[in-house]
Amino acid sequence: MAIFGTIVKSLIDFSDLLLAEEDHIRNQEKVLKNLLEKAKETSFGRHYNFQEIIDSNNPHIAFKKQVPYHDYEKMNSEWWHLMHEGESNITWPGSPDYFALSSGTTGKTSKRIPVTDEMIAAIRAGGIKQVLSLRNFDLPPEFFEKEFMMLGSSTDLEDKETHLEGEISGISASRIPFWFKGYYKPGDDIAKIDDWDDRVRVIAERAKEWDISGLSGIPSWMELMMKEVIHFHGANNIHEIWPNLQVYTSGGVAFGPYEKSFNALLGKPVTVIDTYLASEGFIACQVRPETDAMQLITDNGIYYEFIPFQPEYIKEDGSVIEGAPSLNLSQVEEDQDYILIISTVSGAWRYLIGDTIMFTNVEKAEIKITGRTKFFLNTVGSQLSVNKLDVAVKHLEEKYNTTIPEYTLCAKKYEDGFYHVWYLGSDDLKADEIEIAKTLDSHLKEANKNYKVARSKALQGVKVRVVNPDVFYDWNGRNKKKGGQVKMERVMGEDKFSEWEEFTTL
């Protein structure tokens, strides 16, 4: 009998009696006040007169008026770079012990985002919130007695004398509480292996030693790991190796495009729970099974603002114009796309994280990630966000009974005008590429009025190439971005797309 699991599950169930329904708007008011109070004597806080904001009748309005938007380049060039020169109390009291490296999907040069002790604590509190929410998913006691595989970047952080550097998943895994270490796999020694392929090889070799009940990580890299484990042991699916696998905690990207290919590796259904952990903080997690939306963590060191996702507010490079209006949580509406802006206990202020979100339930503060500001395809007015592109790919999967876990595209100019050139990653899509292009074009015209208008003007049509999904993973590997927090860019500019097309012919 799973005695310990029964105890843990009982404690989680009992926590439901202690947790009242959250007042998310009130939570956010408190978070903003605390952020301003703690940072008012920093260089940033004095420069923007945080004390005056605190003393005002409406701090959230004064905050918007006095503090401009910042993307990474602005935040780093004006403020964060001073920390690397040994200065302290710049945008948050003291000096951070960690910097999270994040090249994301848009470049080869890593961003260095400060991670303070307060942020480490906030991430851990977010994890506890997610664990407590498991009471809503009706999991058996046995689930809580088995092991949990967290597949992220290496925990072998780089020592920079005054701080340590690594991806946020590696930083988080390196700070796992002592009581969880017995459940955590692949374990400290394997997690420190820097080379992704070597780490996965060792995981495959050791896989049968573990009784895994849960997986956590980015879908694309989780799929590759499971394929390697299945292949190494000559199995038909991952449940032949880990028969008690019941939960997959996804994160980093929308799970939808990977759902079909992911499920093909399973022997039986698992519960999929979405999370939103970025280099800048733990933003949201799914807390109930009735929806695949995630609840913003509103009481945990991050203050959120939302800019309506409209073309007139977005510059060509994906940043926002300074006069773009921002809303707080009390002002948003459901089923509208917003650009997410955050201020955090790591000293990010009115920071453009690069994601767009949509509220599915304002009262419960539940959201879905809908795309990236830099991946908004608006050439000649087509106005396609990543979620619309994902829906189009899902349509192809259903029509051709196939899996397309990866794709990328570019609005490319030819002699007769612009075409959307798609590369679809699939190893079983056998249809003719011209036919696929017609199907894709027809779906986009039916589903998106702006795209239909663009097709009647300068957008001439769609071109499609089908390549093996491994090409996408090899591309990330060439750019030293294999594994960890790495996501494939869905939309590329023409210069980078030229590199991509050359790469696919090698």
From TrEMBL:
Superkingdom, natural source: Bacteria
GH3 middle domain sequence ranges: 297-362
Species for this entry: Portibacter lacus
Protein name: GH3 auxin-responsive promoter
Residue span, GH3 C-terminal domain: 389-493
InterPro entries hit by this protein: GH3, GH3_C, GH3_M
GO molecular function, one term: acid-amino acid ligase activity
A GO CC annotation given for this chain: cytoplasm
